[in-house]
Amino acid sequence: MSETTFDYIVIGAGTAGSLMANRLSADKSRRVLLIEAGRKDDYHWIHIPVGYLYCIGNPRTDWLYSTEPDAGLNGRVLRYPRGKTLGGCSSINGMIYMRGQSRDYEHWADLTGDDGWRWQNVLPAFKKHEDHYLGADEMHGAGGEWRVEKQRLRWDILDAFAEAAVQAGVPHSTDFNRGNNEGVGYFQVNQKNGWRWNTAKAFLRPICYGRPNFELWTGAQVSRLLFETQPDGTRRCTGAEVWNGTEKVTVRATREVVLSAGAIGSPQILQLSGVGPSELLRQHGIDVVVDAPGVGANLQDHLQIRAVYKISGAPTLNVMASSMIGKAKIGLEYVLKRSGPMSMAPSQLGAFTRSSPDREWPNLQYHVQPLSLDAFGDPLHSFPAFTASVCNLNPTSRGSVRIRSNRFEDAPAIAPNYLSTDEDRKVAAESLRVTRRIAEQPALAKYKPEEWKPGVQYQTDEDLARLAGDIATTIFHPVGTTRMGADNDPAAVLDSRLRVRGVQGLRVVDAGAMPTITSGNTNSPTLMMAEKAAGWIVEDNR
After folding, report:
1. Is 44 a catalytic residue?
2. I need a labelling partner for 384 at 20 to 30 A (CA). Which of 32, 279, 306, 463 fits?
3. Could you give the 3-state DSSP secondary structure of residue 260?
């Protein structure tokens, strides 16, 4: 940390920050500092796909956040994992490659007044860093840093569920990433030869490490951003204060600071730095730089409702992993072939469909798994079963992220406010009925599926919505807490090029910038946003 002045400072070496650092440091005349609060990604469980089980809830790799008690979940508190290591959430997530639907980006363009966010204009950014296993075509890229592969295992029970979904009216799909993801099929994943492919491998190693103009600090947490008043009276972000474990170090950026600490971390840092709702900042004794009520508001997340079905006559992970012999066989298959359950993403089979026929677009996503447990992190059940988790892709509930104090060490208060609208409760009830309709199809009959959770005794909308509150959990897709918007939108924190309104020299580039959540997993859309933002920064500072 002997050098403290750089052209660009990128805060957060996660999904967006790793790509940003790569693109900005490609210009050898610009010095780039990448700051990561976590450690290097040299923990072996990061790289073995099933290792997410040992990374989530582990202080080595996870911030260990929890939500506030949530009324929509009948007062429950949820674990809220966020990656704290190089690669960020791409080091602990489900590895599912998912862009969302074209309509998501058309809506962003309408909300921001910027056609640059339309589907045809974001598709090139997706393709630029993509390395698809089938090669390049009009929808996919090849030769980029971000590897996309098919999964290395199949399950009879998942094949049967897919056939049952087709019988229930859901078309078969081999690719969810062509603009309309309606259908059922196996997810494509961010893996390479059976190993997790995180953004640290993709964008930092070995490329950035070999650049003399690139510097990486790990174990370094930003406590606040620094602002200076310019001669014209405007405020400019000029750097950050960084805690390295023993002392605070001040770093300066001569061109821009890029905040990529995620949908939880970025609003926390902004609020600690005086950019946020003025009443909240004053409550904690923080001087107001910009009164920005949208900072920490607009939190959106996908809530998965986990229906569990007991079965017979088909292998599931519950049974395979129930003995030492079974576990040894699983481990041996991975060692010899890089396949089998240890190569699994948390969810293998996906489906996108409508909660009711009057829906214009698919508004439900399924993550189907050949296993079951009471809650994430708990032991597998002793009986053979599969889990069909379903989430509302376009929730109308909105939550918040707000600092609890003026201490950077204190985790913020995370209040998702799940199922807080009539619309979301209605979709929750409808989605459980769709799950039951699929389970009743002939393709699954030979496995004798028995609804174990929530239970067939619950039938009314009121019953099902209440049960959703009892059994639903986050699927780890928080977005929107520093959202971009049109110039006439007072609640928008960012303009359409992700610049923070009210100050100069500062952008937020992560999932918090999304105005509305994408219709699927959020990791790859975040990479796309970083690709576009990196191009703008280079263009603006040329």
Report:
1. no
2. 463
3. coil
